[in-house]
Amino acid sequence: MTETKDDTNPSRRSLIGWGGAGLALGAVAAGGAVAMTRTGDDVEPTAAETGAAVAFHGANQAGIATPVQDRLHFAAFDVDTTDRAEFVQMLKDWTAAARRMTAGKTVGDGAYGGLAEAPPDDTGEALGLKPSRLTLTIGFGPSLFAKFGLADRRPDALVDLPKFAGDALDASRSNGDLCVQACADDPQVAVHAIRNLARIGMGKVSIRWSQLGFGKTSSTTPDAQTPRNLMGFKDGTRNIAGTETDRLKKFVWVGEKDGPEWMVGGSYVVARRIRMHIETWDRTSLQEQEDVFGRDKGEGAPVGKAKERDEPFLKAMKPDAHVRLAHPDANHGSTILRRGYSFTDGTDGLGRLEAGLFFLAYMRDVSNGFIRIQRNLATDALNEYIQHVGSAVFAVPPGVRDKDDWWGRTLFSEEA
Ligand code: HEM
Cα(272) to centroid of ligand 1, in Å? Predict the structure, then answer.
């Protein structure tokens, strides 16, 4: 697949003739305050989504510190080809497609109007939809480094995750050579993106597992209303904000001194599919629920405090409270950027909701980040109500710099 010039390809918007109406709507939305939300008496409406495009090029990949969208489609791929040149060409083709899709454009020559004898370049289901803040973020799993002569390029920080107490991991929902995280405000835009990348990759890579998510469970924009997880608690209150340059540098982005050079400006992502025992939780008293987190359910304030953003006083919480154990003070100052989503995949054979948190967290160092905190959570009161059933870790390379750059260039070319 080759990339064609932007002006020869219709944007999703122009294809259905948004014209003036679209612009007017966008202008109102950008001004804020038009979104309707299901409000309790005490809840402010959330800021309106603009449906705009998020920049694809930059020093870091989008989809990490950029504002969290509402929907997720996360896919892990296995590599099928042994031909390095073929794999590199696929990464270039993926980049070209990602550049277009994040701008709200069709892949290649579009979904119709081309050669009648060939399948169209784009599958078409996102025609007419806005860019929806689509971000596409790629990662390379530990197993990729056993292929294509990459063994000596594997970062020391990309360690295999150890087995943690309580893990019940399903191999078919774990690991992978590559991952692509697609986040958007419209689920169809996210699913379209993964589907088209999988299609371009056919014969070279295949999807190993994928996860749909909704209702972001964390925020990188602290001024926005904090979202709630499926247990009904505000989640993401004390996250790293996308504007906290110093903390991003300290805890999220790989720095020059960290090495390897090809990862500078990148990060590491840990994905955990965490099943919640929803029915058990729903029969638990409010007091117990609040004790489990160390925060109250309504406001989200830490124990003994009045407001959500008040500084937690850890000693006022039960020793096994989630926040007390996850807090940086309990983890040698360490923390991570959480970017997870809720999921509900129907019901299991016993009539229970197959639901939980698809936990995603970005960090500069996996051992000092996720592994340290997850080990400390071994005595977490929350463990009675959850189980980790899927797991993966990936090295997330730096951003694509410009129109000539491509995903994975710093790994596959000698110059960083
Ligand atoms: C289903 C599983 C989980 C649920 C429902 C959950 C929920 C929550 C909630 C409600 C909070 C308080 C609000 C906030 O500051 O965001 C919180 C905080 C936090 N959680 Fe979790 N969490 C889960 C799993 C994990 C895991 C696996 C980790 C990391 C290994 C983790 C790390 C953290 C951290 C670092 C904080 C912030 C602590 C602080 O600085 O006060 N959580 N979580």
Answer: 13
Sequence-separated (6 or more) residues with CB below 8 Å from residue 75: 179, 180, 182, 194, 197, 198, 207, 209, 210, 211
pLDDT in tens, 269-286: 999 999 999 999 999 999
Taking the C-alpha atoms of residue 25 and residue 5, their distance in angstroms, rounded to an integer, is 28
- Report residue 344 as tokens: 């509900």
Rounded to a whole number of angstroms, the CA Rg of the chain reads 22
From the list 80, 82, 304, the residue with the least C-alpha distance to 202 is 80
Closest by Cα among 15, 2, 7 to 124: 15
pLDDT at 30 over 90: no
pTM over 0.70: yes
Residue 346 CB: number of other CB atoms within 10 A? 7
CA distances from 304 to 233, 290, 315 (A): 17, 12, 10
**Cα–Cα distance measured from residue 387 to residue 16, given in angstroms and rounded to the nearest whole number:** 45
Asked if 183 and 71 touch (Cβ cutoff 8 Å), the reply is: yes
Question: Nearest C-alpha to atom 40 of ligand 1 is from which residue?
Answer: 327
* Domain boundaries defined on the chain: 71-114+132-411
Mutate to test the pocket of ligand 1, among 315, 338, 365 (most ligand atoms within 8 A of CB): 338
Q: Lowest mean pLDDT of 18-22, 46-50, 295-299, 325-329, name the range.
A: 18-22
Closest CA to ligand 1's atom 11: 235
Confidence of residue 414 (pLDDT cuts 50, 70, 90): low
The mean pLDDT of 67-75, rounded to a whole number, is: 96
